[in-house]
């Protein structure tokens, strides 16, 4: 971290062109061969939206099937393929890349004051790898499907499954290289391309969270790659690496797999935490509470996340001693997450809070993340886990984290930065409605699943005893609301591109560097490379009277109200 | 690297390291045939670490690399050790069922 | 020759720094990738020490040792090429790269011979007359194929990269003295060597006796 100080400061270059990045051409070539991080972010956003709706379609079918106790809509086999499709697409082609490749790509270089990421061509390659991997996975899922579940557990995946495991694993493998490349790019960008005066402890927490996420991406994804590789070579060449007949031990596969897949949860959630920090500080008009504690919590989460994977294996045959160790370590990783929740709450305390759509999402995130995190602690304690392992309790828990927290944060960021990305305002009333619908629909869908799981309904079954039906019907009804809530933004955001009011450079009066340039930003982000001489979140300090800022804050408030349709 | 290094000098430097590496290779090959039982693996891995150290320190120029680069390389090694050590807590403490466990139920449906 | 510096960097020092740091981060990632295989090996070896020794004694130690020597030498020539690049001696860059490519090719050739020998000696999992009849022995051989195979893929990528760089330096297609490209190529090549340095004792030196 100190070595960069030895290098000369970047000298302020001559002013660069002011034309918007969208003005650099509109033909396909100008998009598919672009090295502009903002355009690549848009490419990612479109691709991920597509995958999100494909994964969502699978979820819809699953929820419809589960309305009745009998397996009447799809066969047991098709049901296996449906939830595998849902898991594979959602985890690797939406959740993992979602925020780092879209807002990370678009906002991070601007937030550190750079004109692009460190390796623009590598950035484009990442997108192509993600698309190629996604296509491979889609093809495998369409030509016949995969029935292993997203975890690809051996020896089922190596010895028994006669579905298209190799193709799907290859798809995830390829996309993994895209993820690693993104991670390398972000790390180097933060190290090398910070603007003059942008010291480490002045970085916005969103940048810190993407940086920490990138560390996890770089150090965890290869473990997934090698786990999948072992499956693929085992299937192709019969290497019998996990064949119990030859002395193979399937639990070893699980160790390598979860060495990636637990930290992957933090690949998903850390960027969401970063987004939420930006939103909460902006709409509470407050400097973030405990900036340093937040930074160390982010880095702590990134590192500790590698120490806990065994909590997924309490009933796998892992030794009880190892389970004990992993259980204790899992409680440790909850500490930095709790610090973050307390700090967000403290930031809100005494703030001048307004409830724009993105703030509604951020507040929803706080509640849902807390609920998801706390149930995670239940699951990290061995006695409870043994009872509810592989039940809907687990399903509900991780959907609270991944959908409740992470997807909510994604929508929060989408609404927060939409005016910056497109230069347009969306319809605020519709956006608020969607935010509320999403919160209600989500809880309606997944809270019943906690109860279902506690009562003993196992996951991954397409038929079930009739006494569970009421909870399944509730859940499916909630899913209707949730699906609707996801479709509404698609409409009003698209409409805003044409009919939305022009947003100014900084419609929310936010403090980050990305708001210091025009909306949409020019190709090189800043006409004149910025210099930084203040700490981040120059809103209110905690000890200051909120009323002191009321004049300007009030002004912003009224001007914002005026802009509302 | 300051100044213009002559070709002779840089080839000599590379050859010296190569010589050391080759000696280590000969040692580890010989060591594999020593009757030292369980110490074979530690010996072989120590020599491998010495070879790797030479390559990293001199060929890859870790000394000249920036602090962040050094931390990155170190993290790679540490993460592998983490995966090994924590999964070893499982592998080394797997329970064996006591002899006779469940035999009283044998033959029952 | 085009300008060495390119966007988004303001100066060449920063650009070099970025390329080096980027590659070191990638190397860390690669270490974890191979680490997954090493750890799998370690866990199995703990479970089946004698089967691993018995099966380990079946690999072709002479071919493995020759290949180790070849790869160590190629690292030395690669290092010389990189140093010559920093000092601006084009001819020595070319010589170093050419030797490296040649040694890499030789390694692949020897490896091919070894694979052929392995197959003819039924040293692959599921072979009808697999030489060692112990639980865990086939897992060792499975790991042998997986590890050397993945290593060979990395080496092939390295070979292509070295060949392209050789041609581009010869044709002065880029500023090989001021950009970090040669250095970065060297780092990748040395990583391949490092992996092999660890693979060699694990796969070839176990279970040997006079
Ligand atoms: Cu976990």
Q: Notable features of this structure?
A:
heterotrimer; A: 565 residues; mainly alpha; disordered N terminus; B: 109 residues; 3 helices; elongated; binds copper (II) ion
Description of the molecule:
The complex is a heterotrimer of chains A (565), B (109) and C (210). Chain A is mainly alpha-helical. Helices cover 66% and strands 0% of the residues of chain A. Chain A has one domain: Up-down Bundle (Cytochrome C Oxidase, Chain A). Chain A has 16 helices and no strands. The N terminus and C terminus of chain A are likely disordered. With 109 residues, chain B is mostly helical. Helix content of chain B is 64%, strand content 0%. The mean pLDDT of chain B is 87. With 210 residues, chain C is mainly alpha-helical. Chain C has a single domain, classed as Up-down Bundle (Four Helix Bundle (Hemerythrin (Met), subunit A)). Chain C contains 6 helices and no strands. The chains are: A mainly alpha (565), B mainly alpha (109), C mainly alpha (210). Chains A and B meet through α7, α8 and α10 of A and α3 of B.
How far apart lie the N and C ends of chain B? 78 Å
CATH classification class of chain A: Mainly Alpha
User: Mean pLDDT of chain A, nearest integer?
Assistant: 89
What is the rounded distance between the termini of chain A?
48 Å
How much beta of chain A, percentage-wise?
under 5%
CATH topology of chain A: Cytochrome C Oxidase, Chain A
Order of helices and strands of chain B: HHH
Class per helix and strand makeup of chain B: mainly alpha
H/E element sequence of chain A: HHHHHHHHHHHHHHHH
Question: Which sheet architecture does the biggest sheet of chain A show?
Answer: none
Give a quick precis of the structure.
Chain A is mainly alpha-helical. In chain A, 66% of the residues lie in helices and 0% in strands.
Question: Any chance you could write out the topology, listing elements then pairs?
Answer:
The complex is a heterotrimer of chains A (565), B (109) and C (210).
Chain A: H1 28-32, H2 37-65, H3 76-111, H4 120-143, H5 156-160, H6 165-192, H7 205-237, H8 250-284, H9 291-304, H10 320-348, H11 357-380, H12 382-388, H13 392-422, H14 428-455, H15 469-499, H16 550-563
Helix pairs in contact in A: 2-3, 2-4, 2-15, 3-4, 3-6, 3-7, 3-8, 3-13, 4-6, 6-7, 7-8, 7-9, 8-10, 8-11, 8-13, 9-10, 10-11, 11-13, 11-14, 13-14, 14-15
Chain B: H1 7-31, H2 40-59, H3 67-91
Helix pairs in contact in B: 1-2
Chain C: H1 12-47, H2 49-56, H3 61-87, H4 90-120, H5 137-170, H6 181-204
Helix pairs in contact in C: 1-2, 1-5, 1-6, 2-5, 3-4, 3-6, 4-5, 5-6
The structure holds copper (II) ion (CU).
Copper (II) ion (CU) is lined by residues 262, 265, 311-312 of chain A.
């Amino acid at each position: 971290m100190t070595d960069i100080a030895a290098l000369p400061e970047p000298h302020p270059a001559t002013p660069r062109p002011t034309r918007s990045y969208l003005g650099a051409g509109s033909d396909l070539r100008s998009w598919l061969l672009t090295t502009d991080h903002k355009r690549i972010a848009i490419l990612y956003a479109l691709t991920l939206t597509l995958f999100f709706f494909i994964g969502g379609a699978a979820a819809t079918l699953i929820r419809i099937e589960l309305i009745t106790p009998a397996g009447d809509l799809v066969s047991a086999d098709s049901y296996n393929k449906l939830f595998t499709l849902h898991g594979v697409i959602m985890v690797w082609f939406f959740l993992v890349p979602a925020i780092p490749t879209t807002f990370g790509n678009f906002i991070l270089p601007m937030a550190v004051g750079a004109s692009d990421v460190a390796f623009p061509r590598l950035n484009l390659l990442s997108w192509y790898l993600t698309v190629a991997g996604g296509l491979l996975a889609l093809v495998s899922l369409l030509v016949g499907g995969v029935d292993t579940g997203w975890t690809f557990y051996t020896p089922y995946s190596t010895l028994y499954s006669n579905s298209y495991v190799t193709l799907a694993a290859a798809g995830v493998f390829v996309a993994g290289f895209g993820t690693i490349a993104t991670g390398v790019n972000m790390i180097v960008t933060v190290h090398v391309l910070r603007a003059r005066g942008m010291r480490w402890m002045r970085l916005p927490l969103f940048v810190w969270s993407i940086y920490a996420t990138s560390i996890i991406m770089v150090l965890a994804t290869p473990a997934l790659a090698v786990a999948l590789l072992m499956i693929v070579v085992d299937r192709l060449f019969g290497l019998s690496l996990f064949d119990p007949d030859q002395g193979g031990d399937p639990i070893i596969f699980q160790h390598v797999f979860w060495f990636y897949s637990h930290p992957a949860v933090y690949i998903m959630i850390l960027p969401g935490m970063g987004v939420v920090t930006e939103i909460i500080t902006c709409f509470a008009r407050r400097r973030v509470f405990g900036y340093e504690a937040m930074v160390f919590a982010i880095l702590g989460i990134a590192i500790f996340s590698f120490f806990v994977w065994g909590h997924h294996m309490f009933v796998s045959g892992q030794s009880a001693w190892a389970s004990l160790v992993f259980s204790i370590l899992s409680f440790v990783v909850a500490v930095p997450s709790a610090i973050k929740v307390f700090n967000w709450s403290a930031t809100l305390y005494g703030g001048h809070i307004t409830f724009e759509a993105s703030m509604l999402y951020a507040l929803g995130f706080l509640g849902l993340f807390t609920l998801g995190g706390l149930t995670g602690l239940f699951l990290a304690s061995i006695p409870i886990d043994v009872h509810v392992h592989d039940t809907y309790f687990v399903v509900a828990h991780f959907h609270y984290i991944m959908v409740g927290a992470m997807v909510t944060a994604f929508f929060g960021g989408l609404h927060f930065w939409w005016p910056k990305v497109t230069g347009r305002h969306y319809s605020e009333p519709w956006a608020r409605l969607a935010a509320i619908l999403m919160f209600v629909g989500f809880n309606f869908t997944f809270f019943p699943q906690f109860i279902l799981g506690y009562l003993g309904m196992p996951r991954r079954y397409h038929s079930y005893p009739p006494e569970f039906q009421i909870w399944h019907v509730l859940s499916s009804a909630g899913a209707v609301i949730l699906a609707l809530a996801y479709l509404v933004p698609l409409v009003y955001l698209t409409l805003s591109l044409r009919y939305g009011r022009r947003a100014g450079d900084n419609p929310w009066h936010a403090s980050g560097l990305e708001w210091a340039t025009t909306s949409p930003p020019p190709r090189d982000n800043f006409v004149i490379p910025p210099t930084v001489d203040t700490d981040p979140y120059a809103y209110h300090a905690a000890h200051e009277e909120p009323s002191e800022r009321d004049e300007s804050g009030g002004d912003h408030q009224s001007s914002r109200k005026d802009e509302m349709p | 690297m300051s100044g213009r290094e002559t070709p002779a000098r840089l080839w000599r430097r590379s050859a010296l390291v190569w010589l050391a590496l080759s000696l280590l290779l000969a040692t580890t090959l010989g060591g594999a045939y020593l009757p030292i039982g369980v110490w074979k693996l530690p010996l072989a891995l120590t020599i491998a670490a010495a070879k790797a150290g030479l390559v990293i320190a001199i060929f890859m120029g870790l000394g000249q690399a920036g602090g962040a680069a050094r931390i990155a390389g170190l993290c790679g090694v540490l993460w592998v050790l983490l995966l090994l050590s924590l999964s070893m807590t499982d592998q080394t403490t797997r329970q064996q069922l006591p002899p006779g466990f469940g035999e009283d139920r044998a033959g029952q449906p | 020759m085009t300008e060495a510096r390119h966007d988004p960097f303001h100066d060449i020092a920063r650009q070099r720094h970025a390329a080096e740091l980027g590659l070191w981060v990638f190397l860390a990632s690669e270490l974890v990738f191979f680490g997954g295989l090493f750890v799998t090996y370690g866990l199995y070896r703990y479970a089946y020490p004698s089967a691993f020794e018995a099966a380990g004694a079946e690999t072709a130690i002479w071919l493995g040792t020759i290949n180790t020597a070849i790869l160590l030498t190629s690292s030395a020539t690669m290092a010389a090429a990189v140093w010559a690049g920093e000092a601006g001696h084009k001819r020595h860059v070319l010589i170093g790269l050419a030797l490296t490519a040649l040694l890499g090719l030789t390694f692949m050739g020897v490896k091919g011979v070894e694979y052929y020998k392995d197959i003819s000696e039924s040293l692959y999992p599921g072979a009808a007359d697999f030489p060692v009849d112990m639980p865990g022995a086939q897992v060792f051989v499975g790991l042998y194929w997986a590890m050397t195979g993945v290593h060979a893929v990395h080496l092939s990528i390295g070979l292509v990269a070295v060949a392209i760089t050789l041609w581009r330096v010869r044709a002065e297609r880029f500023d090989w003295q001021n950009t970090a490209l040669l250095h970065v190529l060297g780092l990748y090549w040395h990583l391949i060597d490092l992996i092999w340095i660890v693979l060699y004792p694990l796969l070839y030196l176990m279970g040997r006796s006079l």
